[in-house]
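User: Before I run my own analysis I want an independent prediction to cross-check against. Here's the chain; please return only the structure tokens and, at the end, one sentence I can use as a sanity check.
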Amino acid sequence: MIKKIAIIGGGNLGSAIAKGLKNAKKPFEGEIAVTRRRVHLIKSLEQDGIIVGKDNVEATKNADIVVLAVKPYQLKDILDEISPYFLEKTILISLAAGVDSLQISEMAGGRKGIFRVMPNTAISIGESMTCVSAFQSTEEQDQIINGLFEPVGVVQFIPEELMASATVLAACGIAYALRFIRAATQGGVEIGFGSELALRIASQTVKGAAELIIQDKSHPEAEIDKVTTPRGITISGLNEMEHQGFSSALIKGVLTSFEKIENAGKKK
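Assistant: Structure tokens:
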């Protein structure tokens, strides 16, 4: 039974995970401790019953799970600091992009049972797409990690070599989707809506489109075909977007993010 989780690094993602776990439909009932050097920036987490502080060692003591929500270049120093305080059963989770599990294991003194996890910030409202890779873990540890993140979204175990791709498609991807919503909202203002109403319509429309794919397990083009008619307004708009490079720009953006994360990994 997991009684304590320590999240080392209370930035946007670390804080979102803490909030998501506490506010899930099936909330984590144990202790969650989050650390950050500038503690005042995470004081609001206390409203959700989360312990905040700046002492990484104190947070790590007796933790069943330690989440490393820090920058890749900080990993070694952090692990040097907290590794002596791990329990034998402590499961280590890294959110750091571009640092593989073998490297993390070596930094942690050859530790096994390491997971690289990439959620996105929608974890704070229980709607994350969380990709997970496991390194020298047991089946029981895999089940623990799955059970931890399942209440806050969808969990998908993947080979570690796909973690960089998962970072781009799931974690960066939420920003791409939000940029589409913002652009659609601006278009809505151009055609007569106030900004708040345009945002509401655009947001719900994107949510509905995603649910069509998720619930019906259909292909996007099949759903597009249902709303495009010969000489209709929808196909005219879609064709103009394609003429302006809509799909190619999005694909190029995904590839650019991927190339950057790959190059960052090669520099180490």
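Sanity check: The mean pLDDT is 93.
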